[in-house]
Amino acid sequence: MPRVMAVAFQPQGRLHYVDPGDADYAYGDAVLVQTGDGAEVARCVWGPADVDWAGTLLACLGPAGVDDHERDAANRHRRAEIAAVARRLVARHDLPMRVVGVDFVDQSDEFDQQAVIYFEAPGRVDFRLLLGDLARALQARIDLRQIGARDAAALIGGLGPCGREVCCALMGPARHPVPAGFVRDQSLQGNPNQLQGSCGRLMCCLAYENPLYVDFRARAPRTGITVQTDSGTGVVVGHSVPLDAVVVQVEGERFTCPVNRVCPLAGRP
């Protein structure tokens, strides 16, 4: 069973899973993680643990040193400068696009520096003139990438109606459109706008949580079924998926019973 550690490259940012090797790290420790653009500084979110893991893992190269911290701070400052310049030039060219994120690569085998600018737009944008101005202003190779609403929300981050960081920022946005049927399957009612994320689409958590509802429905007795519980014989009148339980009415009283403690009675509706 492999050892797995979770890290984040940004405060409250998306989790990435790495192989810590034989070393031990604690929450908040700064480590070097091998990425496609070289080694970058990340912070430990939860320490190494033995996990049944089937996917690939990034490589942890060890604790971050003083030089690594200085480079990381300089690159963060450079990203802020790039974002400010990009927004100013977009406004100057009066283009219908919104800059939502920036990556900066200061070391590569192919080029010296590269600024990757992510933007959101309602359609295709002719940014040829903007591209030239950005290259001259930033003195770096420029890569403009248009992204969708879900990816933009993941880059910007924020809090969801649950009070926690939005799922798309922590775990990545749903890779496929979230079907409206998930709303019905999860018995969610009310104003449809309350089920929309900051991207204006159905919230990603509906897709992440739906397998739990599918599994629950396969195990739990339906409403209206007569069951035997520790409190007596009653009728299922509701479900509580987060508690993995059913609500059973027994002689005028209602009890919340775990699914594994409820036994449907044969031959009874």
Q: What is the number of strand segments?
A: 13
What composes the largest sheet?
Answer: 5 strands, mixed, barrel
Unreliable spans are none
C-alpha end-to-end distance: 46 Å
The number of helices is 6
Question: Would you list the SSEs in sequence order as H and E?
Answer: EEEEEHEEHEHHHHEEEEE
Using only CA atoms, what is the Rg? 25 Å
Strand content: 25-35%
List keywords for this structure.
269 residues; alpha+beta; 6 helices; five-stranded mixed beta barrel; 13 strands; 27% helix
Sum this structure up briefly.
It is built from 6 helices and 13 strands.
Structure description:
Helices cover 27% and strands 31% of the residues. It has helices spanning 66-92, 128-138, 149-156, 167-171, 181-185, 204-219, and strands spanning 3-8, 15-19, 30-35, 38-50, 58-63, 98-105, 114-120, 141-146, 226-229, 232-240, 245-250, 253-258, 263-264. 22% of the residues are buried. The protein has 269 residues and is α+β, with helices and mostly antiparallel strands. It contains six helices and 13 strands. The chain has a five-stranded mixed barrel. Helix 1 packs across helix 2 (128-138). The two termini are 46 Å apart. It is flat, with a radius of gyration of 25 Å. Strand 10 (232-240) and strand 11 form a beta hairpin.
